Amino acid sequence: MTNKKSPPSAPPAPRPSAPTIDHTIDLPEIVIRSEEDAYHFLQLASRDEIGGYSKIRFDGWPTLSLYFKGEKFEQSITPTVMKGLLELQKGIYKSFAVAKFDSPTKRLSDEQKDALEIKVGVKGGSSSFEINYQEIAVKLIEQLGARMNPTEVLISVVSIAVLYFGTSAYKSYLEGRKEIRSKEVSDETQRKTLEALTFVSEQETKRTEILVTLAAKNHQVENIARLAHDAHTEVVKCLAAGSEANIDGVSIAPEVSEVLTQNARRKSSEVRLDGSYRLLKLDWSDPTRFRVKIFNTKSGLQLDADVQDDSLTGSTKDALKAAEWNRKPVKLKVNAKLIGEEVYRDATVISAELEESADEAS
Question: How far apart are CA 39 and CA 41, in angstroms?
Fold first, then answer.
């Protein structure tokens, strides 16, 4: 009997590969159509309640408008107004540097500056100017997305939107300056004129509280707010150039603009430099103070700083000692003054906390 070989069996058909699933398709967009939307999402972020999202999109908001009436605005823009716009641009550049590099002194590349350059639209001759944030927002999101988690991106981009382009921030600035100047002016008539002004509603007050709460948790927002404050000063100051002027529909008489911005102190010179640091040196040589040399692991900034006297107790002291002996990074809260564009002075460590390693966290 002859044994016949059975033909070789066909190789099993390859299993179809599982389709690649783009999970971002299922995630919602964050669409911001108004200032109310912007503060809603900032409030969620302050509560750590921002979930996953596919992208952030600004739809029709925000646009900052400046209106001037006067002969010199018929066909031209004055140096005073130009100075205000340049200060606004400078603030946006520095705020981006704070968000991305955690340092307002970081020099931006020409490409980065081009992407964040404001475009001023002119209407009605040269008396009405509009600045649209939406193109800048797209570039900001692109630049920040690679370095930050989604919540951090939202906080940075939306904070810059409300602080530089939102009506509530300008009204809050005007109200704050009114309160300060009402106490400073000696002329009784001028004081009564100022005290009669009201810039903020209950709604604007609540929005300011949202930013204050967020800034208390996020030093970058605090720094961006300080930079925006100085931009507000220059923008409001330039309103005095017209016989009539308003910002986003808020009318301000030229003489009021001058009074409100007089003696306005720059806030961007006071900065928070919180972050992860390595201790390079501890100096106890001066019996009146404790000095440290520290290195920021993110920005590369190196500082000589005092340690605040009341911080030399408890967990802060233990964290500094452990960071020195174990050569571990430490989370520091640091206040400093920025002199000019690049030099920090009077740095002070106000608290310290050891960072958890991956092993400790698990």
Answer: 5
Q: Where are the alpha helices (DSSP H) in the chain?
A: 35-46, 79-101, 110-115, 134-145, 150-165, 167-184, 188-195, 202-217, 219-238, 254-261, 314-326, 358-361
Token pair, residue 101, equals 């590099």
The DSSP bridge partners found for residue 331 are 276, 353
pTM, whole model, 2 decimals? 0.85
Nearest to 143 by CA among 166, 123, 160, 131: 160
Q: Which two tokens stand for residue 153?
A: 């991106």
Peptide bond between residue 14 and the one before it cis (omega within 30 degrees of 0)? no
Q: What share of the chain is helix, strand, coil (3-state, %, to 5)?
A: 45, 20, 35
Q: Which residues of 161-187 are buried (b: 16+ CB within 10 A; e: fewer)?
A: bbbbbbbbbbbbbbbbbbebbbeebee
Specify burial of residue 269 (Cβ count, 10 A radius: 0-12, 13-18, 19+). Answer: middle
Q: Which residues contact 264 (CB under 8 A, 6 or more apart)?
A: 177, 233, 237
- The neighbouring-strand residues paired with 339 are 343
Q: What are the pLDDT digits (tens) for 32-64? A: 999 999 999 999 999 999 988 999 999 999 999
Assess contact for 333 and 273: CB atoms under 8 A.
no
Q: Do the Cβ atoms of 347 and 304 come closer than 8 Å?
A: yes
Mean pLDDT of 307-312: 71
Nearest one of 181, 224, 265 to 94, comparing CA atoms: 224
CA–CA distance, 151 with 180 (Å, rounded to integer): 35
